[in-house]
Amino acid sequence: MKVALYARYSSDNQRDASIADQLRICRLHAEKQGWQIVEEYTDHAISGASLLRPGIQALIADANRGRFNFVLAEAMDRLSRDQEDIAGLFKRMAYGDVKMVTLSEGEITHLHIGLKGTMNALFLKDLADKTRRGLRGRVEQGKSGGGNSYGYDVVKRLDANGELIRGDRSINDAQASVIQRIFRDYVAGKSAKRIATELNKEGIEAPTGGTWGFSTINGNPKRGTGILNNELYVGKLVWNRQRFIKDPDTGKRQARPNPESEWIIQDVPELRIIDDALWQHAKERQKSCQVEPLNPSVGSANFRDRRRQKYLLSGLLQCGCCGGGYSMISAMMLGCSAARNKGTCDNRLNIRRDRLEGRVLHALRHHLMDPALFAEFCDEFTREMNRMRGDAGAAITAARAEIAKIDRDLDMLVNLILRGGAADKINAKMVGLEARKKELERDLAQAQEPPPLLHPNMAHHYRAQLDNLYRNRPIGTACRW
Description:
The protein is of the alpha+beta class. Helices cover about 45% and strands about 15% of the residues.
């Protein structure tokens, strides 16, 4: 019988030797059973809470090709700790007539999937809860709950037992002076863009070690990001402002804001960099600069509709000097974003959008009809259209699936109210779900269906589209070539 071995270790207190140990005992077991090992799959320093791992994905692909009859691992939690993922993996293996065997549980059955999967899921939740409790305790002692802010150094020292004391910070005087300067300049009336440009010209490194941008300074007031919104600078350590939820489709973490009532705020006067008066003046200027939605009755849900509309060459233009993007700097002019927003490029040449679009369309109509160039265009066009078709279809499917789930959740909440549940809390949850449903429905209404498969007569289609673009170009594109 042919067998594949799988080993994994996560990033928590484990090491590469753990992989070798797992594979070693699996090899011994396979030899005792007389199985032929055809492949060994590993994932290093990757959590078991997701199947989005190169090793496990390769194992699934090879199982579908019939390369082996068994999958052997040290324990079920090496394969996955997520209930949905382990059940899905079990189904995939069963479909390929591949049995799952572990040294701890033996041959995996539906009973193992149900019971052990639940236990592993509870382990993950318990681990997360313990981690949060530990971080909360650290924050309540005035120590950092993780990460480090610009303006501070990590203090490394040992306790009486020789253990590393975590969470201590001290003020970095050089960076603190930059922070104070940013606040003073902002209160004095300078824009975040101008402040960033001046810092870049002086060669002062940004928090990430690169160049300053206006978003590094402005940030997001609601999320507490950006230099102007970091309350640690006034001696207040804020923790639990947001939580992270893993997207079940992509496996990526998504940030969700927590209600202010759940925030943990601790006074740390020894870390103060900005005095209260300067902080308050900055907040007042921020508030005066805020742009309100056009229609307050609609709220901020449709605020994105006010964003500048995309044009023909949106996202396709690059500065020939620095490689940065060329974007709209006024109603009709395009310019280098790095030059205007960061001051890191000397290219101050601007061009009218209509003029540039006219030149591009003229070149496409008169120079891309060469057979060799047109064949290359057809290949690239086909690849891009197929990619767009897949992306658009996936987004539409995901939105429809989320709407269906929201409908089920709403029905469940209605039943809870009928059974005497806490109406106030349930109503608040329902309002949030209804708002999300409306947002998804609006996105679906505006979404384009996946582009159709390419027509055989693409040359005619290409010429027709170019002629249409040229006829409908903005006024003023009939310029000098």
